[in-house]
Design brief:
InterPro entries: Prot_inh_I16_SSI (IPR000691), Subtilisin_inhibitor (IPR023549), Subtilisin_inhibitor-like_sf (IPR036819). Keywords: Disulfide bond, Protease inhibitor, Secreted, Serine protease inhibitor, Signal. The protein contains three helices and four strands, in the order αββαββα. It is an alpha+beta fold and 132 residues long. It has one domain: Subtilisin Inhibitor. Strands 2-1-3-4 form a four-stranded antiparallel sheet. β3 and β4 form a beta hairpin. It is globular, with a radius of gyration of 23 Å. It starts with a helix and ends in a 6-residue tail after the last helix.
Length: 132
């Protein structure tokens, strides 16, 4: 009888350890970002602000599905975005646009800020991510 209780207790402890460690050990894949655009070189005050969540897609971003797909393809690295090939021919007028993308990308902090020469260059290099 005592052996059965010890065996049951040992099994219960083992189950708690194995099952309890599983979810806690899992890495969060949450993506919650805030994107801004601002005319000028400083980025403040932002002219437009949008939230973006991916997997599942949501937020206030107007092109959230496309933006998430492009960020996934670039592994969350804005510098690696393929951009919009239809916008590659841009005028050289200087009308700076500063963008930021901050938050959590697949559980990791993300902070990006860059000034582009104009909106056409921005879209050509970043696709829909900053199409707020």
């Amino acid at each position: 009888m005592a052996a059965q209780r010890v065996l049951t207790l040992a099994f219960s402890v083992l189950a708690v350890v194995l099952l309890g460690a599983g979810p806690a050990a899992a890495v969060s894949q949450e993506t919650v970002l805030t994107a801004t655009t601002a005319d000028g070189e400083t980025g403040t005050p932002p002219g437009k602000v949008a939230t973006l969540t991916c997997e599942p897609t949501g937020g206030t971003h107007q092109q959230r599905a496309k933006a998430c797909a492009q960020l996934v393809a670039a592994h969350g690295q804005v510098a690696n975005l393929a951009g919009d090939p239809d916008s590659q021919v841009c005028t050289m007028d200087y009308r700076p646009v500063t963008v930021t993308l901050k938050g959590i990308w697949q559980g990791q902090p993300l902070a990006y800020q860059k000034t582009y020469g104009n909106g056409c260059v921005l879209r050509g290099m970043t696709g829909d991510v900053f199409a707020l």
